[in-house]
Write the structure tokens for this entry.
Amino acid sequence: MRSIILTLFLALAGAAAEPPPPTGWPIVASPVPLDPAQPGRDRVGALRWLGGWVLSSRDPRFGGISALTLDRGRFLAIGDTGGVFRFRIADGRVTESSIAALPSGPGSTDGKADRDAESMAFDPGTGSVWVGFERHNAVWCYDAAVAHAQRHDEPPAMRGWPVNGGPEAMARLPDGRFIILAEEAAGPDGSTEGLLFASDPAVAGGRPVRFGYRPPDRYVATDMAVLRDGRAVVVNRRYTPVDGVSAVLTLVDVRAIRPGAVLEGRALARLAPPLTVDNMEALAIAEEAGRTILWIASDDNFSRLQRTLLLKFALDEAALR
């Protein structure tokens, strides 16, 4: 009997220690509906549902997605322990994927303590990627392969931001300016602070314009992306033990940024139970056949009680008028 138990234990241990395939463990996608109680539902606010998936992988580094971008059909996602995830999804399937780690970053350790990446910006011209880190309140710029760090800075304007409430959302404007929104830092008139950098925030010496962003009541901004007309969509998240997680997407006219100005968004949609929703922290905007597409992803906090969602919506153009 003992030998049988030992054999079974060794077999299970061997299965648990199974080496990954030569190309690494893939990212896989499982479909989910917008509303599990009403599978045919395809509208929420100004958004039309185009599909949704739970993303997963056997690679323990996968998860914690806090920022997302899309370039020529290929996603780049950054996790809040320094994970770098690339994948394509077509016809509801992940057709290619890779999982890696940031080559370097603030501090001296890997993981949450020094690689708490919460925001990202992307230059489609050069492929350069900027990542905003909480805890250090720093911005690092990487090459297109995210294989080498090119430059970095801890902007003085961000030094007073909370350790766990720093650069939560970042976007690069077409003219080369950058917007960074704090998660919790106090801004003017009860708002949350935002910064507008005239150029690269990873280069020392910048003097950003300070302004405020007022999210919906009891929500915090978790990501933003710029529309073709120069306005931005902001993802705002809220969690309470009673109501659970919800997210509100707002349309914000960032062209109105001035020193001391307070921006407020117009609600586009609210995702809340019983709709499919989790800790929504990442947003990318794309164009498909003349439609504005919003891709929203969630941070699962590496918890078995949460999921990494990737949701796809078309934005009703009437909402932009």
Observations:
- The chain has a mean pLDDT of 93.
- The two ends are 74 Å apart (CA to CA).
- The longest strand covers residues 47-57.
